[in-house]
């Protein structure tokens, strides 16, 4: 039951969800910094002008900015071989469009990287993880504007150069395919079509803006791959996708066609461009039927063709079903990514259907399609954890979730999938990206921080901490 020798076990986080220190070290305002906290039943809000007396979870988050050495020591205690984290664009370029980087920001991440290397933990760095500089949203509506490419590449050049010889693995954009949905416009791209306070899940959606933004991101990613290889031939640059596994609800052919078409847009479009270096033909019909026109300039096709990624990474949390029957579509939502519920699956506290076998299925699909090394860089269970009277956090439900997914990853390895690593999401409790909550906890480490802004940020090991430590020590052989 063991995994390949050298398999990268670890964990994953994002700067805007754990760092805090939102105005320290010269950091500028990023899009998450203007988002309020939400709950399981109410979404977070976007407030383009910071409101007095309003709680903004990212401002302090879990104070990793001041406690990163303590946190990385805990990761090392678990035995991490890899730590996936992101670099906040606004720590390096506070507004996003400066010509010279902020030295304090570069130094912070250099210290963080050095702390990882001290424990022989391989950094896996996400360059842009749901945190576009808000200045660029106000100035150009972010990725709708082609000038964003140069700003992004300037950011890449600064960090590729500074961390040469210390970082090997990079990811260009986190969950880039989130922008194929309305929710991803602001979350992933920083696109805000009307600058006013609004509910995070009820923004004005302009699909053409999202897909134009994706085109600019594809170009930026391809050019970043080229730049990385020129700066350091040892650099490996990957893409990062949401793997939103779905099945036809019934064996009706129309349900299968519906599922195939939804898979094309959500699961394959962005990775087809980033892994194969060209737009897939199936998007021609989608663009036409949805009145989407992508402005491309001469030479764009050549840029994409010259910049395919070196490896593929994804998040995997859930699956859903698709149906062509409009009445069944109205009957219920499968999870945050839509679809309809699978009658054979249970769901998390937040309604995300739990499907370990879907991970094996998806890894085989990805491998067959691209034949690139694969990392699962997000996977986990958001749940209501509590501290018992004896001080323990008994999260056996999380252990069950992770165990079942690791078992299916191993099945995929036996199937012949070239799986290189596994970094479960939120290895330490942090702020939820979709709702702005602390209550939705994923970590192996409990953080004393709550949705009302109280808590002393102290850390304590959960039951899952010791379980995952054993998993890593045995290279996945002991999942008991």
From TrEMBL:
Short name of any one Pfam family annotated for the protein: Glyco_hydro_1
* Family recorded in the similarity comment: Belongs to the glycosyl hydrolase 1 family.
Instruction: Give GO cellular component annotations, separated by semicolons.
Output: cytosol
PROSITE patterns xrefs: GLYCOSYL_HYDROL_F1_1, GLYCOSYL_HYDROL_F1_2
Entry keyword Nucleotide-binding: no
The record's annotation in SUPFAM superfamilies points to: (Trans)glycosidases (SSF51445)
Any idea which GO molecular function terms this record carries? beta-glucosidase activity
Alphabetic keyword roster: Glycosidase, Hydrolase
In terms of domain of life, where is this protein from? Bacteria
**PANTHER family recorded:** 6-PHOSPHO-BETA-GLUCOSIDASE, GLYCOSYL HYDROLASE
Q: Which InterPro entries match?
A: GH (IPR017853), GH_1_N_CS (IPR033132), Glyco_hydro_1 (IPR001360), Glyco_hydro_1_AS (IPR018120)
BP-aspect Gene Ontology terms: carbohydrate catabolic process
Name recorded for this polypeptide: 6-phospho-beta-glucosidase
**What broad taxonomic lineage does this protein's source fall under?**
Bacteria, Bacillati, Bacillota, Erysipelotrichia, Erysipelotrichales
Residues annotated as the enzyme's active site: 378
Q: Which residues cross the membrane?
A: none
């Amino acid at each position: 039951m063991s995994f390949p020798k050298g398999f990268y076990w670890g964990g994953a986080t994002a700067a805007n969800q754990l760092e805090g220190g939102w105005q320290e070290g010269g950091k500028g305002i990023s899009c998450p910094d203007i988002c309020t906290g939400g709950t399981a039943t109410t979404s977070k809000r976007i407030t383009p002008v910071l409101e007095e007396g309003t709680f903004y979870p990212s401002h302090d988050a879990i104070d990793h900015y001041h406690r990163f050495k303590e946190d990385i020591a805990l990761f090392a205690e678990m035995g991490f071989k890899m730590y996936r984290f992101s670099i906040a664009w606004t720590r390096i370029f506070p507004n996003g469009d400066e010509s010279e980087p902020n030295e304090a920001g570069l130094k912070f991440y250099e210290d963080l990287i050095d702390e990882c290397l001290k424990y022989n933990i391989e950094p896996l760095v996400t360059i842009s993880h749901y945190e576009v500089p808000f200045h660029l949203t106000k100035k150009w509506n972010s990725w709708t504007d082609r000038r964003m490419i140069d700003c992004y590449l300037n950011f890449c050049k600064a960090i590729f150069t500074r961390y040469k010889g210390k970082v090997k693995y990079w990811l260009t954009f986190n969950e880039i395919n989130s922008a194929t949905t309305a929710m991803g416009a602001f979350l992933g791209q920083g696109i805000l079509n009307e600058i006013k306070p609004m509910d995070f899940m009820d923004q004005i959606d302009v699909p053409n803006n999202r897909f134009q933004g994706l085109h600019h991101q594809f170009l930026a990613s391809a050019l970043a791959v080229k730049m990385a290889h020129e700066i350091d031939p040892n650099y490996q640059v990957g893409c990062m996708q949401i793997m939103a596994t779905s099945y036809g609800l019934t064996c009706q052919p129309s349900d299968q066609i519906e599922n195939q078409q939804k898979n094309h847009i959500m699961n394959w479009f962005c990775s087809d461009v980033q892994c194969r270096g060209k737009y897939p033909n199936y998007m021609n019909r989608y663009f036409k039927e949805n009145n989407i026109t992508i402005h491309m300039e001469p030479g764009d096709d050549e840029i994409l063709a010259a910049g395919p990624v070196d490896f593929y990474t994804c998040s995997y949390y859930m699956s859903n079903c698709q149906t062509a029957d409009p009445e069944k579509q109205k009957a219920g939502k499968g999870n945050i990514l839509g679809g309809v519920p699978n009658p054979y699956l249970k769901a998390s506290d937040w309604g995300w259907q739990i499907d370990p076998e879907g991970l094996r299925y998806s890894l085989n699909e990805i491998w067959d399609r691209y034949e690139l090394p694969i990392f699962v860089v997000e996977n986990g269970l958001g749940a209501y954890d509590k501290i018992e009277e004896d001080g323990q956090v008994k999260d056996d439900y999380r252990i069950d979730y992770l165990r079942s997914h690791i078992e299916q990853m191993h099945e995929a390895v036996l199937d012949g999938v070239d799986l290189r690593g596994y970094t479960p999401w939120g290895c330490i409790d942090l702020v939820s990206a979709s709702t702005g909550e602390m209550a939705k906890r994923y970590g192996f480490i409990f953080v004393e921080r709550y949705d009302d802004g109280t808590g002393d940020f102290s850390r304590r090991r959960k039951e899952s901490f010791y379980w995952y430590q054993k998993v890593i020590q045995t290279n996945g052989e002991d999942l008991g």
